[in-house]
Amino acid sequence: MFLALGGGGVLRWIVSKLLTIPVVLLVVVLVLVSLTSGIMDQIMMKQIEVEISRSVITNPQYANLPMEQKMKIAERMKEELIKALGLDKPWYVKVFMYTYSLLTFKPIYARVLTTRIIDPGSPNAYLIVFERIPFTVVLFTTSAIVTLCFAIP
Questions:
Q1: Average pLDDT score, the chain
Q2: Which of 5, 18, 53, 153 has the maximal Cβ count within 10 Å?
Q3: Handedness of CA 107, 111, 116, 120 (dihedral sign)
Q4: 124 three-state secondary structure
């Protein structure tokens, strides 16, 4: 392909790729975030509701309060946390908010998974992905070798 383009064609090809790749990446990230944000918001809202209700009910500080008062406290705490996480904003604002945090590599924290090797117990998503890269490389290399072994004969 490079030989067919000639000297000036290669530079034009590289420039066109450098201009289109970021645009395509941005569109893919926007589509991915917009497709998953609604489901993730519902999961996060339910998880917040369960965690706060459980923590208020089991908190010894609120032990002598009636259940109605505990539920009001839990509701207030839930609303504050939802507002702090930005879950009360419209979907089109959240899409750009999530995309910005993804593209700027702001720390993302997992709610279920934690690291095992690098920083045991850390919920930092980047560390979780980083510690699984070697296993992924081994899996890919093994599958490529097995594929080559069957494809060559």
A1: 84
A2: 53
A3: positive
A4: strand
C-beta separation of 44 from 52 below 8 A: no
Cβ(82)–Cβ(47) below 8 Å: no
Full-model pTM: 0.56
Query: Backbone dihedral region of 124: left (phi > 0), alpha (psi from -120 to 50 degrees) or beta?
Result: beta
Q: Please name the residue ranges forming H helices in the chain.
A: 2-58, 67-85, 91-103, 125-151
The dihedrals phi and psi of 124, each to the nearest 5 degrees, come to -65, 120
Positions of the chain with pLDDT under 50: 1-2
Which amino acid is it at 83? K
For residue 48, the one-letter residue type is I
What is the number of other CB atoms lying within 10 angstroms of the CB of residue 128? 19
Question: How far lies 138's CA from each of 103, 117, 133, in Å?
Answer: 27, 17, 9
φ/ψ of 117, rounded to 5, equals -110, -55
Residue in this structure with the two tokens 């539920």, named with its chain if needed = 71
**What residues form DSSP beta bridges with 109?**
124
The one-letter code for the residue type at 146 is V
HEC secondary structure over 77-111: HHHHHHHHHCCCCCHHHHHHHHHHHHHCCCCCECC
